[in-house]
Structure prediction request, 240 residues.
Amino acid sequence: MGLKAIFFDIDDTFYSTSEFSKTARLNSVYAMIEAGLKISVTDCFDELREVIAEFGANFGNHYDRLLLRIPQEKYGNVNPAVIVAAGVVAYHETKYKSLKPYEDVLEVLRILSSTPLILGVITAGLMNKQAEKLVRLNILKYLTPNAIFITDQMGIGKPNVKLYKNAYKNLHLKAEECMYVGDNSITDIDPPNSVGMVTVLNRRSGKYLDVQGKTKPDYVIHDMWELLDVLKKNFGITTE
Ligand SMILES: [Mg+2]
Prediction:
């Protein structure tokens, strides 16, 4: 009743971030080996995983760092810049080809965009990266343009509750008129719960599947069709 807006998380909610990252990284490893790096796929992938763990997923020079850690005899007289470029290009090519939303995400957003609901995003990450994901996922057409909030751009990170407050206040809405859908109990459920938003835990994919929060979500879903059911049954949202 009285629901006016749904805010969504992006990663592992609109698409399988974990699966995509793994594919993209693996493709970059194959490309670097093809460009002249003489180590096994497993060793290279493990080393890359370490770099990402040590310097963070949003660090800009994973492949340069990776090469610094590999003895020069493993690439001989091949210019390391070319090997790095091969990795970077393969990563980006995977993005062009494989960064796709779950099919039901597209369908359900399309259906919901014909209702009076505001459809927004509250996402944690770098401004340009998160914005690019929304463009690549091809879902901007279903979202309300002034309802997209990115932590990097707001200067507030998850799980700070101010992030959620600022989002609904910005749209002149009350907490209880807003729903948040995300996959991480600690960052996506506990904070919006604490201000009285309606919370939906998307238990579908990703590394936060087994994370336990302090509070329970109002609803648990496994795909967006289930969200549509929740909206119909509990909030009187009619579609078609
Ligand atoms: Mg997420």
Remarks:
- The beta strands are 5-8, 118-123, 148-150, 178-182, 198-202, 219-221.
- The chain has two domains: 5-16+102-235, 18-98.
- The domain at 5-16+102-235 is CATH 3.40.50.1000 (Rossmann fold).
